[in-house]
Amino acid sequence: MISHNELLFALDSTDNIVVMTSLDGVITYVNKAFETTYGYRRDEVVGAKTSILKSGHHTKDFYRDLWDTITNGETWEGDFLNHTRDKREVWEHTKISPIHNQRRQLTGFIAVSDNITTKRILEQQIQEEQFLLNELVANSPVAITIAQPLMVNGQVDDIIVLKANPVAGVIFNRLGLTGMRFRVLMPSFANYFVQLDSITSEKQALEVYVPELAKHLSFRTFPLPNGRFCALFYDVTDYKRTIAALQESEERYSSLVEDTPALICRFDNQANITYVNKFSLINRKLDDIIGQSFYSFFDEASVRIIQKKLSHIKGHVTTVDFEVQMPVNNQVRWLKWVVRALFDAEGKIFDYQAVGVDFTDFKMAEQALAENRNMLNSIVNNSLIGVMVVNVRNEIVFVNSRMVEMFLYAEEEFYRMQNPHITLVDDENGIRRRFTDMLNHERDSFTAEREYVRKDGTVFWGSLYLSPVRDAGGEIREVVALVADIDLKKQFEMRLIEDEKKLKALNATKDKLFSIIAHDIKNPFNAILGFASLLHAQLDDFSKDEIRVFIEKILEAGENTYKLLEDLLTWGRSQLGKLSMKVVSNSPRAMVDEIFHYYTILAQNKSIQLVNALPDDLCVMADTDMLKFVLRNLIHNGIKFTNTHGTVECRAQSANTDGRVAIAVCDNGIGIRPEKLGVLFDISAFLSTTGTANEKGTGLGLSLSKEMVEKNGGNLSVVSEVGKGTTFLIELPVA
């Protein structure tokens, strides 16, 4: 962002006069160009009324119109004639614009002026001369004609009138002189043709008596482009008085043209220069320039610009202007050109008049200022940090592109905000209070991390840095707020905290798990070792039926132990993220048949009937190993918690979601108490349970089963009633 000091430096560097005032016309600021022009020091005029500059030239109505315009919030543009400190007259072309704050309230005015004193003097002189010439042509008794000599063998043989004013018709006693020849109008005038051989290149002056008209005429000519000349006829007495004034006017005009600090030239339709003044910047002889192409002074790009501009001259458009570079005395200069087309009597362009003013210094300053502004804007707007500037009235006066990206408000919406803190989620850190303290000089810059709310309602974390901007007197004028998006950082920090909590919970779960497993896995091994020791020591003492019972007990204890170990190993792989998954089409009925066969002895020991009611053609999408694990756990639990002569059944049910099917694992066992249903799948609960035949279990398998089903895009739920049984529903996508 451009700082206050940089802005003041830029204003002091410009050649334009800059004045700022309050609403009642009290001067609040002037730049160096003002001091140079008016001779006042800045501290002499700041606080004074602008009336100290009045020259008395303008009327009260003039100032009333000016004030009505600017107080209505509009821009006034016009010319002033002011007095400097030493009462010199200064003409300014001024543009006065209102200064509004972000709430569109009028707070003052700024006047930017060009010193046009020299220009006004020149314009006034030119206007006076032009007015005089027009008056002479239209109203003077002088007859003025534009004529073309007809040459024969290099000598004037006759003269044809191309254009004549009404007075000429009066002098020659006939109307419609255009097209007439001098031999017809004044046959005796042919005697003077021999003196007019150079009439198209030199001024001529004759005084003759024309017997055909019975008048003494003074005949004066001066050449025009394209071999033409202008002739003035008038009675001797009146003509002499008028010609004296005309000569004086020509001399003044010529002096003005030659001495003006601008390049003035004329060129024809082929762009050949026919006239050029003594422009000091061009260190060349005028004879070397006359006849050269006007375009020869410019590069190709500039020539294209000029030709395009000249092509716009048509109809009522007679003047064009443009800015191009021009090599002058081995330097490239910037010139602002105004080109006017000159038309003949038929409305055709016969010549161009061009005036070029050197404004290189102004152009260079303008370009440097623009480059600096663009560089600063580029740095600020491409910053990864949001930048906002707030004035002492809590109005946002600047935001960069990053602020727009972060908060999703358009730049104009920021400027319309009545409160720059509306983006705060809350104010538990006292940001508003600290901001107010800063404006009251009770606090310097500070930083804070807090949550912000975007326009769409989403919230993100930002790091805020506030710093005051003071003027030369130490007063705070603005506050700069820098906001960095630290949402990812905060998310990472919160994730670390959450991971730490999870790790602690996992460690606690692990400790609890191994405590339970150490106890539950010990009992089956005691049974295995006990029955095995009996068989080993007294095998011959037992009958076959007794041996069969011992072996069944050993198998049952081994199965339970294997189940515990399998659950433990699977849980370990799950925690390490090593549970690979490959979703394929599976037949639940075939899996259940395999699992029922595996658990036949367990079921027979409790006289439990295993029923597979799943359709043969039912296929679901899931990882095969995971689905087997889930079915095996649920069927094992069904056997474990079902009383003797009970039933464990697997069947298909419709699911709550389209494209899915529910595999129901049902038993008519002891059921699950309501208080345990809520934590049945909670891995941290580890409900160490005992089956109807004192089978041991940790509940770990259910937690793993739910995790696996969800990994496969499904859902595992349970419905149970104490004393009536339990139904687990595995919802999976249909293949």
From TrEMBL:
CDD domains referenced in this protein's UniProt entry, alphabetically: HisKA, PAS
One GO process term, biological-process aspect: regulation of DNA-templated transcription
Residue ranges of domain PAC in the record: 74-128, 318-371, 446-498
SMART domains the record matches: HATPase_c (SM00387), HisKA (SM00388), PAC (SM00086), PAS (SM00091)
Keywords: Kinase, Phosphoprotein, Transferase
InterPro entries referenced in this protein's UniProt entry, alphabetically: HATPase_C_sf (IPR036890), HATPase_dom (IPR003594), His_kinase_dom (IPR005467), HisK_dim/P_dom (IPR003661), HisK_dim/P_sf (IPR036097), PAC (IPR001610), PAS (IPR000014), PAS-assoc_C (IPR000700)
EC numbers: 2.7.13.3
Catalytic activity: ATP + protein L-histidine = ADP + protein N-phospho-L-histidine
Record GO terms (molecular function): phosphorelay sensor kinase activity
Name of the protein: histidine kinase
Originating species: Breznakibacter xylanolyticus
Record lineage: Bacteria, Pseudomonadati, Bacteroidota, Bacteroidia, Marinilabiliales
